[in-house]
Specification:
alpha+beta, 7-stranded mixed sheet, 5-stranded antiparallel sheet, 17% helix, elongated
Length: 200
């Protein structure tokens, strides 16, 4: 008898994630694609007037200083945070259990904490042509001065909602709904073919 895996046990990109070099890589690869699989992906929202208290709570739990304002963010390579709308933040950690760490810090009087870890897929695109490939999908200025390291944006490509954070000079982490992950991954691979890409 064949044992079936539940949908949550199967990584959403597994059937399409083929490691190695692809596309026009004869002269090297200019883009590296990977699924990062963080342990925790949270959405935090402050009630009106409680934004500063929420930002303070984020710093207490993560150790990351977060400038006020939508789009501002910070990353240390293990944990990341960015504002994607007024009073709303995405917080990511390599480790599981981050939601419980916020339980006593973000009280019901300050705002809400929603664990999206099982509902989102994290895709990383890096390399000298990462900005160029992403510009095919999103009407955003990806240049470093306009989109600094740590900053995040909330946007859409057709019907695919995406949150994007710049986590390095030529590196971006993209968070998409798990149900759209495979489709978005395939589109990202196709868009990277002409510059040569590697899947890790």
């Amino acid at each position: 008898m064949v044992e079936r895996q539940s949908p949550l046990e199967l990584a959403p990109l597994e059937p399409e994630l083929r490691t190695g070099s692809h596309g026009d890589f004869e002269h090297g690869v200019d883009v590296i694609l990977s699924e990062t699989r963080p342990g925790s992906i949270l959405q935090l929202a402050a009630w009106p007037g409680q934004e500063k208290e929420l930002i303070s709570g984020i710093r207490t739990v993560t150790g990351l200083a977060l400038p006020d304002g939508a789009g501002a963010g910070s990353t240390d390579g293990v944990r990341s945070v960015f504002g994607f709308a007024p009073g709303k933040f995405t917080v990511v950690d390599e480790a599981e259990g981050l939601a419980s760490a916020f339980a006593n810090v973000v009280t019901p009087a300050i705002g809400t904490v929603t664990d999206l870890s099982h509902g989102r897929t994290a895709i990383r695109i890096a390399g000298p042509k990462a900005e160029w490939v992403l510009a095919k999908f999103f009407a955003i200025d990806f240049a470093l001065p306009a989109f600094p390291v740590g900053a995040g944006r909330s946007t859409m490509h057709h019907d695919v909602f995406a949150q994007i954070q710049r986590t390095g000079a030529d590196q971006f982490d993209i968070y998409v709904f798990r149900s759209f992950a495979r489709s978005f991954w395939k589109a990202l691979c196709h868009a990277s073919e002409e510059v040569g890409y590697e899947v890790q």
